[in-house]
Design goal:
Blueprint lengths: L23 H16 L3 H8 L21 E7 L2 H8 L5 E9 L8 H5 L6 E8 L6 H11 L7 E2 L2 E2 L5 E5 L2 H16 L7 E4 L4 E2 L7 H5 L19
Helix pairs in contact: 3-5, 5-6
């Protein structure tokens, strides 16, 4: 889930192992993919591990909105929460998106405990939105467009149950909306691996995870918007 600058394939030669007979544009795309895979385990991962988590945390309520009217919440897990948070925050009507953990038994889990895969939690975001401006179904649809719901216990180069695709619903209306969206994806040929569960206790992640890409002036690439509801899956 780490941003990178792809500056390969230009003057100065070709990386070892890449055929010089490959067309230059194709070679560049191939090299970019190698750089991307390496970057996902780079400096940002080190930052995550080295940052000191708070000594004690409790469940944090959603941030209050600045205008009047009711709000609603949704919980989504789709790989590293940095990218999911980044794209969902862009939606009109979304008030706040917080990175955290859900789905495991461990109380007040730390990032280290979740990333080990032993706590049972998934990296999850809590989305607070104005239902008069955007529907839950629209938020859920966007979630399915910004991550790959066909991947099992992973998202791109991040592998483990903590990166699974899951939706945690707060009631039958949310479950029905998610089930309908999954049905549409399956009709388009996508082998959806996303699981749907009743929402459990949400533990807000450490401060250094919140608004990660905005704070670090980076752009996610492990999460990329794809209009899956508008086109069939590739054969």
């Amino acid at each position: 889930m780490r941003g990178f600058a792809c500056n390969v394939g230009g003057a100065g030669g070709v990386s070892p192992g890449v055929s010089t007979t490959m067309p230059s544009f194709t070679r560049r795309i191939f090299l970019c993919s190698l750089v991307a895979a390496a970057a996902c385990g780079g400096a940002d991962a080190t930052t995550k591990k080295q940052a000191s988590p708070p000594a004690e945390r409790t469940e944090t309520p959603p941030k209050p909105r600045t205008s009047d009217g009711p709000t609603d919440v949704g919980y989504f897990a789709g790989g590293c929460f940095w990218g999911v948070e980044h794209f969902l925050e862009m939606m009109p009507g979304v008030i706040d998106v917080e990175s955290g953990y859900m789905g495991g038994e461990k109380e007040a889990p730390t990032y280290e405990e979740v990333s080990s895969g032993d706590s049972g939690h998934a990296e999850t975001v809590r989305v607070t939105f104005d239902p008069q401006q955007v529907t839950y179904a629209a938020v859920a649809k966007r979630f399915f467009e910004i991550h790959d719901p066909t991947q099992v216990d992973r998202q791109g180069p991040d592998i483990g149950t903590q990166y699974r695709s899951a939706v945690y619903v707060t009631g039958p209306e949310q479950r029905a909306a998610v089930d309908e969206l999954i049905g549409k994806l399956k009709a388009n040929g996508y082998a959806v691996a996303t699981t749907v569960h009743d929402a459990r206790k949400f533990w807000k992640a450490e401060d250094y995870h919140q608004d990660y890409y905005a704070g670090n002036k980076k752009t996610p690439y492990c999460h990329t918007p794809v209009p899956r509801f508008d086109r069939p899956a590739k054969e």
